[in-house]
Structures are given as structure tokens and as C-alpha cells.
Design brief:
Elements lengths: L5 H8 L1 E5 L3 H12 L5 E6 L36 E4 L3 E5 L4 E4 L4 E3 L2 E4 L3 E3 L5 H4 L4 E2 L4 H12 L5 E4 L3 H12 L4 E5 L6 H4 L1 H13 L3 E4 L3 E6 L5 E6 L4 E3 L2 E4 L3 E3 L11 E2 L2 E3 L5 E3 L5 E7 L4 E5 L5 E3 L4 H15 L14 E6 L2 E7 L6 E8 L4 E8 L2 E8 L5 H9 L21 E2 L13 E5 L7 E5 L4
Parallel strand pairs: 1-2, 1-7, 2-3, 7-21, 9-16, 10-11, 10-16, 11-12, 19-22
Antiparallel strand pairs: 4-5, 5-6, 8-17, 13-14, 14-15, 18-19, 20-21, 22-23, 24-25, 25-28, 26-27, 26-29, 27-28, 30-31
Helix pairs in contact: 2-8
The protein binds flavin-adenine dinucleotide.
The site of flavin-adenine dinucleotide has 35 residues, from helix 2, strand 2, helix 8 and strand 24.
Length: 464
């Protein structure tokens, strides 16, 4: 469907297929209908459930405050779609514009939205991963099974990995009065996402809440009993932790294997797409009929040196899906770039943590407001003398302000006075990321405007 009048025809009677029936898939499909798409819409999902929300799975569900089957995503509108749930897509024929399904069926499309997200990285030793009492947390079924194990009152839970999800799991265990050990390879919890200065605060939070936190160690093996139940974990420092529940929280793997051999630019790092969400093929040429959104996508962000960002953020999935759907139904001059400023939230140990921008690019951090020791502060990250990210602990009301600084490439450290600036916030310190990104000297791009139609990029070439 290309050429004159083809867009109108696509909107009237085209076929759009969405693979991945979760947050990005649903919001993309809703946007298609909102923007006047009246043709046939097929939603393909390998899980047997209609779209549900994942953030509550590590929070309310593990606390026993909600059941995993009550986390359906609210619907913005009726979709009038054909749902193919419980059936994975297994292949893509780009030339014939066809998606193959595991049940042997094939579905043809004029436009395809890929939103297959990520899955939990399993424990690498298969036999150990299969022991009773070893869990991951990504899906509704994972959360149900883990919550059931916690409700049985285990002697001790071992969480492997202290990123956001691992830390939230540890927090939920402590809130339920369950003994928990956290093993983290890095120097502190959250160190990969927020750096060592904030990681130190996170470590104190764990310990104050009674977590047995072991940093700088790796779990080298899990041991089962004769009935096949996990009973202990061995650590790289020679210690052993007796445990009957192990939660493997080692990050995520992108769901791209089904695209192998299709010719699409898809791999372990996700599916590369342009800022308009159109997927690249393996030659690096952008496709016109295949769009990507959500956790599985990697797209260049003008504000962050055109780096291809892979974000596992709820808000990114929604925004990118909306942009992809809009662009699918638009002439090239009407298309929009996906220039959502990354934002993330987490709640753990009674503290609300939010971040905006790309803290991991930050080389320095300034505690611009509040105090680390009070666990109520705003940390601002700087990169090449500009504000690149911010994090708040129980101070989210300031985040919008710092987002504007990021969008306008405001100088770092901020030169103006801030409310509740303490002596510790007078000077930036090393943000202390374990593996700092290599600085690049690119052009400066700023974003302005609020409504999607007003959003504008201003491009200032690099000075050499
Ligand atoms: C426990 C947990 C807590 C979280 N907490 C937060 C939080 O506090 N804040 C935040 O910002 N974000 C949080 N997130 C991240 C957020 O939930 C994700 O960013 C969001 O779910 C991404 O949506 P998505 O649609 O891109 O991918 P997903 O939600 O991963 O959905 C992809 C869907 O595609 C399906 N699929 C995969 N392969 C195929 C195939 N071949 N055929 C058909 N279907 C397929 C998958 O099974 C899945 O249903 C959390 C995630 C988890 C797991």
C-alpha cells in the first residue's frame, strides 16, 4: 500500500498486525484506532492473557496486596481486534509481508508493529534453574508462583542481583518479615543504573531494613536436596547461604529470536529502529512497513548524542508505541520523532525513587537538594558540563524541573540556587559508575514545545 491515496486506503481497509500483546502493543493498537484506522487489526501474544501491567508484580503482588490476575491494563477504548493469544509468532517473511505463528497459521499485514519486549534472564546453569524454589520475575505466572512461595513462610530468600527488580523483591520480603540475603556482583545495589554515590544510599537502605546484603560477590552455584528442592547457594567468596527460595534477578533478554533469518536488524541488543520507530533491516536500511516499540526497541535519541537507547521503562513503551502508531498512518512530513525523555520509578523500603534522563551517561553527580543521609534528595548528573539526568529519593515533585534542564542542555553544575541546598551539595563529585560510557563529542540538540505537534528539535553543530 504505497503511492497516491494509499494512506487513505490503508486507514480504511488495511491490515495491521501487532506482535506482542502487552503494554506497548496495546497502547499502539489503541492509538491506531484513535487516529482513524478502520481496517483489520490482529493482536498476537504468546502469553494466554490479555494485556496486563508488570510494575505491580514486584510491588503490590509480592506484598500480597493484590493478586497477579488483577493487574489487567486499563483500556482507553474498544479495539475491535482479532486476538491471537497463547500463540507465539515464530517467523517473519518480510517480502511476502507475513508473520508465521507457532500453530502453523500465517497472518498477512500491510503494516507490522513489533512489541515483543524482553524476558527474564534465567539462571545460566539449566539443572540448577530447574530446582524447586528457584524463580524469576517477569510475568503474571512468575509473580503468582513466587508470591505463593513467599506466603508459605520460607526460612530465607536469596535474591541474586540488586538492580531495581531485585531490590524491590528484597524490600517486599522484608515487609513480609521474611529473612532475605541479596547477592550483588557490583559494589552496591542499583550501582549500574544510578552509580556508586546513590548505590551507597541504597545499600544503607537494604541493611537498615534487615537485608543481609553481600556486595562484590557472585553466586557460583545452587545446590538442591534429594527431592530436587533448592537448599543452598555457594558464593564466590567461599561462603554458603542456606535458603529455600532463590529469585534470579539478573536483568533481561530481548525477545528477538523469532526474527532470526528474516532480514530484520534484530539481535540480542534488540531491534534497531530510527527515531520514527521504523525498523532497520540487516543492511541498515530503514523499512517502511515494520515499526518497533517498547522494551525490544533500540532507537537513537537526539538529546543523548544520538545514542541508540534500549529502555526498559513503562513510560517509554507507551510513548514509543503511540509514536509508532501515529507514524504508521502518516505521510513522511507528518511523522514525529520519538523524543521522550527517559523516566523511571521504583518503590522500595518505603522510599519512592524516580529518575529522568540518562543517569548512566553521567560522570559527575551533585546533590542539588536535600541530603543523602536523610534519604530525601535530588541528585543531578552531569556529562560534558551539561545536565544529563536526575534522580530523586522521596522528592519527585522537582523532577519535572530537572527534566526541563535536560531538554534544554542546561549547564552542569546548575549555577542557580536551589531550595534546601546543603553543604554536601556545593560541589559535584564523581558519579562512580562501574563502567562509564565513553564520551563522545557530538552536536548539541535541544527539544522544545509540549504538545506532540509543537515538539521541535534545535540542532547546534559540534565545535571542534
Ligand atoms: C516486575 C517488574 C517491575 C517493573 N517495574 C517498573 C517500574 O517500577 N517502573 C517502570 O518504568 N518500569 C517497570 N517495569 C518495566 C515495564 O513493565 C516494561 O518497560 C514494560 O512492560 C514494557 O512493555 P512492552 O510491551 O515493551 O514489553 P513487555 O511488557 O515485555 O511485553 C512483551 C509481550 O510480548 C510477548 N512476546 C514475546 N515474544 C513473542 C512472540 N514471539 N510472539 C508473540 N508474543 C511475544 C511477551 O510474552 C510479552 O507478553 C517493570 C517490569 C517488571 C517485569
Amino acid at each position: 500500500m504505497t503511492g497516491n491515496g494509499s494512506l487513505e486506503r490503508l486507514k480504511r481497509e488495511g491490515r495491521i498486525v501487532v506482535v506482542g500483546a502487552s503494554l506497548a502493543g496495546l497502547r499502539g493498537a489503541e492509538t491506531l484506532r484513535e487516529e482513524g484506522f478502520a481496517g483489520s487489526l490482529t493482536m498476537i501474544g504468546d502469553e494466554p492473557y490479555e494485556p496486563y501491567d508488570r510494575p505491580p508484580l514486584s510491588k503490590q503482588v509480592l506484598l500480597g496486596k493484590a493478586t497477579a490476575d488483577r493487574t489487567d491494563l486499563p483500556r482507553r477504548r474498544a479495539l475491535d481486534a482479532q486476538w491471537r493469544l497463547g500463540v507465539p509468532a515464530t517467523g517473519l517473511d518480510m517480502a511476502a509481508r507475513r508473520v508465521r505463528l507457532a500453530d502453523g497459521d500465517e497472518v498477512e499485514y500491510d503494516r507490522l508493529l513489533i512489541a515483543t519486549g524482553v524476558r527474564a534472564r534465567p539462571w545460566p546453569k539449566e539443572e540448577e534453574a530447574e530446582l524447586d524454589g528457584v524463580f524469576v520475575l517477569r510475568t503474571r505466572d512468575d509473580a503468582t508462583a513466587l508470591e505463593r512461595a513467599l506466603a508459605q513462610g520460607p526460612r530465607r530468600v536469596l535474591v541474586i542481583g540488586a538492580g531495581f527488580t531485585g531490590s524491590e523483591i528484597a524490600s517486599a520480603c522484608r515487609e513480609r518479615g521474611i529473612a532475605v540475603t541479596v547477592a550483588e556482583r557490583g559494589a552496591a545495589p542499583l550501582v549500574g543504573a544510578l552509580g556508586g554515590v546513590i548505590g551507597e544510599v541504597a545499600a544503607e537502605m537494604h541493611r537498615e531494613h534487615g537485608v543481609d546484603l553481600r556486595c562484590g560477590v557472585m553466586v557460583t552455584g545452587l545446590e538442591g536436596d534429594s527431592a530436587g528442592r533448592v537448599r543452598a547457594a555457594h558464593l564466590s567468596d567461599g561462603n554458603t547461604v542456606e535458603t529455600d527460595v532463590v529469585v534470579v534477578s539478573l536483568g533481561a533478554m530481548r525477545n528477538t529470536e523469532w526474527l532470526g533469518g528474516s532480514g530484520l536488524g534484530a539481535g540480542p541488543r534488540g531491534i534497531a529502529c530510527d527515531a520514527g520507530c521504523r525498523a532497520f533491516d540487516i543492511r541498515g536500511i530503514v523499512t517502511d512497513d515494520i515499526y518497533v516499540a517498547g522494551d525490544v526497541a533500540r532507537s537513537p535519541h537526539p538529546l543523548f548524542g544520538y545514542q541508540f537507547l534500549s529502555l526498559e521503562h513503562w513510560g517509554n513503551a507507551v510513548s514509543q508505541a503511540e509514536t509508532a502508531a501515529h507514524n504508521m498512518l502518516s505521510e513522511s512530513t507528518e511523522r514525529r520523532p520519538h523524543i521522550w525523555v527517559p523516566a523511571f520509578w521504583s518503590s522500595q523500603f518505603g522510599v519512592n525513587i524516580k529518575s529522568v534522563g540518562v543517569p548512566t551517561m553521567g560522570t559527575e553527580i551533585l546533590i542539588a537538594q536535600g541530603s543523602l543521609s536523610e534519604r530525601r534528595f535530588t541528585g543531578v548528573y552531569g556529562y560534558q558540563e551539561r545536565v544529563i539526568g536526575a534522580v530523586t529519593f522521596d522528592q519527585s515533585k522537582w523532577l519535572q524541573f530537572y527534566q526541563q534542564l535536560i531538554e534544554t542542555t542546561a549547564p552542569f553544575p546548575p549555577s542557580f540556587p536551589t531550595v534546601d541546598r546543603r553543604p554536601e551539595g556545593q560541589r559535584p563529585v564523581d558519579a562512580d559508575f562501574p563502567d562509564p560510557s565513553v564520551p563522545t563529542h557530538g552536536p548539541t540538540v535541544t527539544v522544545s514545545g509540549y504538545s506532540p505537534d509543537d515538539r521541535r528539535l534545535t540542532f547546534t553543530p559540534a565545535r571542534h
